[in-house]
Write a structure and sequence with these properties.
globular; mainly alpha; 2 domains
Length: 188
Amino acid sequence: MSYPAEAESFRSEVRAVLAEELPPGWAGIGAIAGRQDAERFAAQWRQVLYRRGLLGITWPPEHGGRGLSRLHQVVLMEELARAGAPFGEHTDLFGIKMLGSTLLRWGTAEQRRRFLPRILSGEDRGPLRAVRTDDPGAPNSSGSWLGAFLNARAGTIYAGTSEVQRNILAETVLGLPKEKRREEVGHG
């Protein structure tokens, strides 16, 4: 499979970053024996990715990204996988991918200005934890498990559907207006 020239040029950039920034003799994240050592490396590596402009690359430049295509994101992930390098820390899947994407799509200009740079820099991130709820008012309340990315400033709750994610994030964290559920608009 061949990619367009701009994607291959980006691949060269990523490979140069990997060659310059990974430790000599790098054998991949899996070669790091201890979990804490691997987590420490991932945290340090995340800062390299941030410093080199390789986090949030599809985000608009005004929000700290590079405005690149999804194909560029594919190339980045291919090269990180080839090198055995992590994409960042485990919380980045929730912070950058879920919370960031939600803010880009549904957040106000003020919320994007306030939170997105902090998410990319790593200033706003938190632990992943599971929350079990049997609250009849909660989404999927029949004892569903919810994964939560929480910290003092921003967070998202993932419950398996983007509608639930948006509503919980909107109502409880960011103060966005609630979207009408399918039942309320006659689709369910």
